Amino acid sequence: MISKKEVERLADMTRIAMTDDELAKFAEDLNEILDRLMGLAEVDTQDVDTTYQAAPLEEATREDVITSSLPAEEVLKNAPEAVDGYFRVPRIVD
To answer: CA geometry: angle at 77 spanning 76 and 83, to 5°?
Structure first.
């Protein structure tokens, strides 16, 4: 059981300002969470196979397909400024 005093100590350690009402509410909420977790410990899992991954792992990749790209001249037509076949951008590092 988590007491209001323990919640106050945690709030102090984490530098979180809490009112007395908030401390009491958090203690109540944390105790409810712990009660529910303890209920999980009572579930009989004897005949359940161990699962390391709940959902099957699938690679989110696709086959590489080689296609032609746009010619550099066509791409640079949309550039605000180009020099010697490259985009010209403002200098940001000295």
So the answer is: 45
Per-residue pLDDT reduced to its tens digit, 41-82: 888 888 888 877 778 788 878 888 999 999 989 999 989 999
Range of the domain at 29: 4-41
Note whether residue 62 is domain-resident: no
Q: What is the pLDDT of residues 2-24, one digit of tens each?
A: 999 999 999 999 999 999 999 99
| CA proximity to 72, closest of 87, 58, 60 | 87
Rounded (10°) CA dihedral 46, 52, 55, 60 = -170
Report d(CA 54, CA 26) in Å as an integer. Answer: 31
How is residue 36 written in tokens?
């529910």
**29 lies in a domain?**
yes
